[in-house]
From TrEMBL, chain A:
GO molecular function: NADH dehydrogenase (ubiquinone) activity
Residue ranges crossing the lipid bilayer per the database entry: 32-50, 81-98, 105-123, 129-150, 162-183, 203-230, 237-257, 277-296, 303-321, 333-352, 373-392, 412-430, 451-470
Occurrences of domain NADH:quinone oxidoreductase/Mrp antiporter transmembrane (ranges): 126-420
GO biological process, one term: ATP synthesis coupled electron transport
Record-given protein name: Monovalent cation/H+ antiporter subunit D
Predominant localisation class: membrane
Annotated localization: Cell membrane; Membrane
GO CC terms: plasma membrane
UniProtKB/TrEMBL annotation, chain B:
Chain segments carrying region Disordered: 100-130
Extent of Basic residues compositional bias: 112-130
Gene Ontology CC terms, in alphabetical order: plasma membrane
Protein family membership: Belongs to the CPA3 antiporters (TC 2.A.63) subunit C family.
Top-level taxon: Bacteria
Protein name, entry field: Na+/H+ antiporter subunit C
Subcellular location: Cell membrane
Residue ranges crossing the lipid bilayer per the database entry: 6-21, 28-50, 70-91
Basic and acidic residues bias: start-end ranges: 100-111
Source organism of the structure: Denitrificimonas caeni
Topological relation to the membrane, as annotated: Multi-pass membrane protein
Keywords: Cell membrane, Membrane, Transmembrane, Transmembrane helix
Length: 500, 130
């Protein structure tokens, strides 16, 4: 029993509460608390990563109650990886926001901390109802963060986002209720055990509940036909918030992955592989529609929002196929796409600031103050996000394309390659509009803030770095894929916990 | 009793979904409330319906399942917070956007046919007098 498992949830929660009280005080103090808390979080996740890499699944019974009745936290390679991705992203986001973006509304840092608590909790929990609770924590913080800085566009998109997610929460509860009513447990591993032995009516009800859950997770992950809220919401959010939201769709994908491997995995008997055929089709449709949306976007941030959707579709394809190789490739792609798209959102914020009222809309505007520097950054990030060599986006896509075989292969190859091409065209159009075409007048906007630029550039550097360190990461994701596909190991870990 | 509860949940869900699909924020908020009532009731019933049994563990060997009650309590609290948030957001949207349509934009109203006719008639009449 390792008490450090609690830190990723408790630390942001406590700091968030502290920041609520400190918000009236000096801004420097608030920033200090927030940044140091997130750095601690990063340290903690970097400590948990090698711990999980040893291959043992750590189970933490809250209040030392044993598993089927008590609530458990569960740390395997997958959760540790997701925690690490979140913590790294959060460090950059908080540093960027601390250069002034956090003063556009009150309580930014507190909300950020609550959001992190929710995300980390969702990655760690081994219990269905607590997954719901952490989802709600994450969502209510995200509602407020989305509205951060106010403005008409934000309110309009937030209304859709909030209402849709409330309906999603209702469906989640119905699914959880169905699971409990049939299986009498909400612990995911117990549920897996029950599903593997269910038959007849029980099986039917469990499958219905599972399908409802997939619907809810799909809403969070934003794939077709549940993605319509995303582009407007992400495009209207402020740069650091949009960057943080890059991980939010991945929470939904994580939940889908967790459920499709653990509860409805290979060992699930009659319900094995529930809905993977549908997910596969939806993934491909998502990629196609998202890339068309990206091509038609009229501002950089909405283009990026559609690119988030492309990455969602690609990841979902990997999850739907669900072999060890595709899962490993998907996880690698997840890490790089999250960081690079978040970095691009931050870059879009910097570009928007230099264009005054025009923002990042694709309209001819004044000359940027630092067109070369920002343009070079944008160019490199574009190559990374569109999946051209030599950066990690390309490597992730190659891994994924290599991993599929047979009937699925040509479908995925066509969709991914063509969408990559269309994406490159759309991005180059965006780049030439923003960096080359301009009035003769120089913009009178604020000069480049060195710190925010450095933060953005560093985050974008993750892409080449991920290629350099591809071997250890791919080894790790392969081990992760093996682990999540082996549902029996989770049962074993849970039983060991009960015996203690 | 099962039938009655099932019908109640069904009616609540139906009304909730109907209201959620309306175009005004007020009816949507109302619909969300009804829907969350239905969900909470459903969650509660998942512990099976009993009468005359102690609620939580006691000396009795026969008791109702306490877990759904715990779940439903949590869900109610969260549901209240979320509904409050939606209401405040809807109010804010109304003041900022100037209307209470869920899209934030009022669709232009179609003119009534008889009115257009009368307009045309007026024009004709004006033309005639000239």
């Amino acid at each position: 029993m390792n008490n450090l498992l609690l830190v990723p949830v408790l630390l942001p929660l406590v700091c968030g509460a502290l920041l609520m009280m400190a918000a009236r005080g000096s801004m420097a103090m608030v920033r200090l608390i927030s940044i140091s808390s997130i750095l601690l979080l990063l340290l903690c996740s970097l400590y948990l990563l090698p711990l999980a890499a040893q291959g043992e699944i750590l189970v933490y019974g809250l209040g030392n109650w044993s598993a089927p009745f008590g609530i458990v936290l569960l740390l395997d390679r997958l959760s540790a990886l997701m925690l690490m991705v979140t913590a790294v992203l959060a460090v950059f986001v908080v540093l960027y926001a601390s250069r002034g973006e956090d003063q556009r509304g009150s309580y930014f840092h507190a909300l950020l901390q609550f959001q992190l608590a929710g995300i980390n909790g969702a990655f760690l929990t081994g219990d269905l109802f607590n997954l719901f609770v952490f989802f709600e924590i994450l969502l209510i913080a995200s509602y407020a963060l989305l509205l951060h800085g106010l403005g008409v566009a934000r309110i309009r998109s937030a209304l859709h986002y909030v209402i849709l997610n409330l309906i999603g929460s209702g469906l989640f509860l119905i699914a959880a209720g169905l699971f409990y009513g049939v299986a009498g447990t909400l612990n995911m591993t117990d549920l897996a055990l029950f599903v593997s032995q269910a038959e007849g009516d029980q099986l039917f009800l469990l499958e219905a509940a599972g399908a409802l859950l997939m619907l809810v997770f799909g809403l969070k992950a934003a794939f077709f036909p549940l993605y319509f809220w995303l582009p407007r919401a992400y495009a209207s959010a402020t740069a650091p918030v949009a960057a943080l939201f890059a991980i939010m769709t991945k929470v939904g994908l994580y939940a889908i992955l967790r459920f499709s491997t653990l509860v409805f995995g290979a060992a699930a008997g009659g319900a094995s592989g529930l809905g993977t055929g549908v997910l596969w089709v939806l993934a491909l449709v998502t990629i196609v529609l998202a890339i068309l949306g990206a091509f038609a976007a009229n501002s950089l941030s909405s283009l990026l929002a559609y690119l988030v959707l492309v990455s969602v579709g690609t990841l979902l394809a990997g999850i739907a196929v669900g072999t060890e190789a595709t899962l490993a490739a998907s996880l690698y792609y997840l890490v790089q796409s999250t960081w690079v798209i978040a970095g691009l959102f931050l870059l879009a914020g910097i570009v928007a600031k230099q264009r005054g009222d025009l923002g990042d809309n694709f309209k001819v505007g004044p000359r940027l103050l630092n067109p070369n520097l920002l343009g070079a950054c944008f160019f490199l990030a574009t190559i990374a996000v569109a999946g051209l060599p030599p950066f990690a986006g390309f490597f992730g896509k190659v891994l994924l394309l290599q991993a599929v075989s047979g009937q699925t292969a040509w479908q995925l190859w066509t969709v991914v390659l063509v969408s990559g091409l269309v994406g490159v065209i759309g991005l180059s159009r965006a780049g030439s509009m923003l960096f080359w075409r301009h009035h003769t007048t120089a913009s009178e906007a604020q000069p480049l803030d060195k710190v925010t630029f450095a933060v953005t550039a560093l985050l974008l550097c993750s892409s080449p770095l991920l290629v350099v360190f591809a071997q250890p990461l791919v080894n790790f994701t392969q081990a992760t894929a093996l682990q999540v596909l082996d549902a029996a190991s989770y049962l074993q870990a849970m039983q060991l916990k009960e015996a203690m | 009793m099962e039938l009655l509860v099932a019908i109640a949940i069904g009616v609540l869900t139906f009304s909730g979904v109907y209201l959620i699909l309306r175009a005004r924020t007020f009816s949507v908020a109302l619909g969300l409330t009804l829907f969350s009532y239905a969900v909470n009731l459903f969650l509660f019933v998942m512990g099976r319906l009993h009468t005359g049994k102690p609620a939580v563990l006691s000396d009795a060997t026969n008791y109702t399942d306490p877990v759904p009650q715990a779940l439903v309590l949590t869900a109610i609290v969260i549901g209240f917070a979320m509904t409050a948030f939606v209401l405040i957001l809807a109010l804010r949207a109304h003041t900022e956007l100037g209307n209470d349509h869920v899209d934030g934009v009022e669709k232009p109203k179609k003119e009534n046919k008889p009115r257009r006719k009368s307009n045309r008639a007026n024009k004709k009449r004006v033309g005639a007098t000239r």
